[in-house]
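re the bet — no i am not wrong, look at it urself. input seq straight from the record:
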Amino acid sequence: MHRLWLIFAQTVTVAVAVLFVLTTLKPEWLHQSPTVVALRESASGNADGKGMPSGSYRDAARAALPSVVHIYTTQKIKQQNHPLFDDPIFRHFFGERPEGQEQKNSGLGSGVIVSPNGYILTNYHVVEAADDIQVSLNDSKTYKARVIGSDPESDLAVLQIKADKLPTVTFAQPDGLRIGDVVLAIGNPFGVGQTVTMGIVSALGRSHLGINTFENFIQTDAAINPGNSGGALVDVNGNLVGINTAIYSRTGGNHGIGFAIPAASARNIMEQIIQNGAVTRGWIGVEAQEITPELAESFGLPDTEGALIAGVMRGSPADAAGVRPGDVLLTVSGKPVKDPQIMLDLIAALKPDERASFRLRRDKSIVEVQVKIGKRPAIRQEKE
């Protein structure tokens, strides 16, 4: 009897040990209780990127993310001493005070790598007045950057870092974007790290916003916030369609109205900066005014089309060609002028020293003049 009891005890001990091992190491071998509700599960295979689920833009993000960088800038600000520190009596009682100390003002933004040897496209306002620029890549490597050149009137700048074999963005085909197309905005909003947001193209050719001198924006509802400036706006294939530049907001946050510079425009400006160090635009030296219905009635004009010449700079190309204040500019090289912004864009697109035909309405007659285009003066960039 004692022997049987011993065998039983040993059997139970071994069974408990086996159950413990199975529960710990191979729980799936044990019998599972039936589920209360029958659930449908997706097929495996999406974890590695294969079999992309419908509606996903992971391939576009994967293609574009490595080429988008974070930009950190530092500007030194000299702190001024209070005027009392210069008073002899004050200095007699309180001693000499140190000269104004330098403080640092930091900023952040984004940029897009456009060439393997380190050229980066970003917004001018991201690096404006910066004394030190640091660029952090997608792999967390950080480099010191220098400004190759900038164009404040379009709010673009080109940087370069000392690196090679960098991942670069692919530019989309010009004029391929349409209203309603899905786009992704990639950048570093509020410094939280690389972020991808999705939206659609809300409008094309936005201007008269007062953001830049030359405006031809893509409007999108993809979330763009402070820190996104200079980042990439890409299509569903990960190709660059724009450089994120500004938002319409009264609070500083995203309200679904963001603006990006078209990639084709940015590329043209970038190539001029890299090749010449600056952007060359046409100029004739006039001040134009929009024709309102009231002005049209006052001047006896048949409609509000064109740009009213409000002033002509003495000695300018327009002055030499005989353009007068009060003229209404109708066409530039055969292209219609609808308003002063269109006039500015058309003239800027002309090459200096070439001659262009300008069609004007003067009083009740139409006048044709030939203008030798000049070079648009650069904006003075003063550093405080």
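see?? Residues 10 and 85 are 94 Å apart (CA to CA). told u. also The radius of gyration is 32 Å. so pay up
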